[in-house]
Automatic annotation (TrEMBL):
Cofactor(s) listed: FAD
GO molecular function annotation: NAD(P)H dehydrogenase (quinone) activity
UniProt source species: Limosilactobacillus frumenti DSM 13145
Keyword set, alphabetical order: FAD, Flavoprotein, Oxidoreductase
Any Pfam family: Pyr_redox_2
Family listed: Belongs to the NADH dehydrogenase family.
Keyword Oxidoreductase: yes
Protein name from the UniProt record: NADH dehydrogenase
Source taxonomy: Bacteria, Bacillati, Bacillota, Bacilli, Lactobacillales
InterPro entries per the UniProt record, alphabetical: FAD/NAD-bd_sf, FAD/NAD-binding_dom, NADH-Q_oxidoreductase
Parts of the chain that traverse the membrane: none
Length: 405
């Protein structure tokens, strides 16, 4: 019986397992590896960081979706792959795990672009633990304010006003009343500052929509500092320049959060795969070009959009669609000894950015959506992806039919 090893129980990995369990029952043995016993919706991490969602609301046990007749789940750290020998080294197992086919879906890590002090002095937000750490850090700063009266304890700087930074700022705005109670101040005393190098934000949207998003964030009282190129992070201080040759300026804050960029898992480089920022340019079967039995999905993959010079942006949406393709292709290979006739292709259903619980903006199925309607669309999109991986059971258990919890 063929052995499929799936690395990462994120959107890409877990959905691949769920589909293979249905399509190849009796014909395959699956091993799924993740460092955590739970799957989490990375698209909601900003809400955990702000404290507007609990970690349990955005995660569920991997075991809930495992069919023990076919799949073994190993909770361990993936160290590296040897794609030529077709095996995977795990941190706590002496013998490497061998495979016939491997699906690599280890997701993203924070990218600091070598900016001095960013790793040491800014908080990343790429997994549940980091999101909880951010929330705990904010609360500690607010509690400290009661005795210190240091205004920096009330300041939160988010580095990077991309999609993630904007969504985080929106969630922090929603949390401002609670934050103010903790510190014993007025909500308007809590300062939320976004520092961003670009002057034209949100390149995934047209000018009109991007302007709408920017104005929305500003109207909510977020201090949006654009055209500020971050040059370093010191403890409690973000250094930046308003132009290459400009003098260095700084903004101080008790909480500094890093959402400037992400790269693919470092396991990609450790495994000797050819990649740029941890992303492998896959072929149209989503395989590593040199290793046809290795599928690379989600944030560790780069797939070129036809006629474009850049790969598609990494999103949960494309990770899920890559899982669909991989399950079809593996089923054809294992059942019929041939490849799925069509190569992989992708059509985005749109992108919607939330700004707090009741506002959002973006495009859905080719149409612009804004405000409350936008937030409704965003919640429907999030429910769809929860449903695609976790099924009705997880959707119900998370109470997500109540959209405005
Ligand atoms: C705040 C935020 C908002 C976002 N909003 C959207 C959105 O609105 N729409 C959208 O489409 N996308 C959004 N994204 C992007 C989206 O979350 C990612 O593109 C998506 O999570 C990638 O899925 P994946 O399956 O490749 O990896 P992940 O979801 O990151 O899963 C990777 C899995 O691998 C495991 N893992 C990693 N390394 C190891 C290791 N060495 N050993 C063992 N296990 C390991 C992790 O525990 C995790 O379970 C957002 C991201 C963030 C941070």
């Amino acid at each position: 019986m063929k052995h499929v090893v799936v690395l990462g129980a994120g959107y890409a990995g877990l959905k691949t397992v769920v589909l293979l369990q249905k399509k190849l029952k009796g014909a395959v043995k699956i091993t799924l590896v993740d460092r955590n016993p739970y799957h989490y919706e990375a698209t909601d991490l900003h809400e955990v960081a702000a404290g507007t969602q609990t970690p349990s609301k955005i995660s569920y046990k991997v075991a809930d979706l495992i069919d023990p007749d076919i799949t073994t789940f190993i909770q361990d750290e993936v160290v590296k792959l040897d794609p030529a020998a077709k095996n995977v080294q795990l941190a706590h197992q002496d013998e490497p795990l061998t495979y016939d086919y491997c699906v690599l879906g280890l997701g993203f890590v924070s990218e600091t672009f070598g900016i001095k002090g960013a790793e040491e002095n800014a908080l990343p937000m790429t997994n549940v633990k980091e999101a909880i750490d951010i929330h705990d850090h904010i609360l500690k700063q607010l509690k400290d304010y009661r005795s210190s009266k240091n205004p920096d304890n009330l300041k939160i700087v988010v580095c990077g006003a991309g999609f993630t930074g904007i969504e985080l700022a929106g969630a922090l705005v929603d949390a401002r009343t609670h934050f103010a109670d903790v510190a014993g101040v007025q909500p308007s005393d809590i300062q939320i500052i976004l520092v961003e190098a670009a002057t034209r934000l949100l390149p995934m949207f047209n000018d009109k929509l991007a302007d709408y998003g920017v104005n929305l964030v500003k109207k909510l009282g977020v201090n949006l500092m654009t055209g500020c190129l971050i040059s370093g992070i010191e403890p409690g201080k973000v250094l930046y320049k308003r132009g290459k040759d400009a003098d260095e300026e700084s903004v101080t804050a008790g909480t500094i959060i890093w959402t400037t960029g992400v790269s693919g898992s470092p396991v990609v480089a450790k495994s000797g795969l050819k990649a740029r920022r941890g992303r492998v340019m896959v072929n149209d079967h989503l395989n590593d070009p040199e290793h046809p039995d290795l599928y690379i999905l989600g944030d560790v993959a780069a797939f070129m959009a036809p006629g474009e010079k850049r790969p598609y942006p990494t999103t949960a949406q494309i990770a899920l669609s890559m899982a669909d393709y991989t399950a079809e292709d593996l089923t054809e290979r294992i059942k019929n000894g041939q490849r799925f006739a069509k190569g992989y292709s992708y059509k985005s259903l749109g992108t919607v950015a939330s700004v707090g619980n009741t506002k959002a903006f973006g495009t859905a199925m080719g149409h612009p959506v804004k405000g409350y309607i936008g937030s409704f669309m965003k919640k429907m999109i999030m429910n769809r992806s929860l449903m695609e991986v976790g099924g009705v059971k997880e959707l119900l258990s998370k109470g997500r039919f109540d959209l405005y919890h």
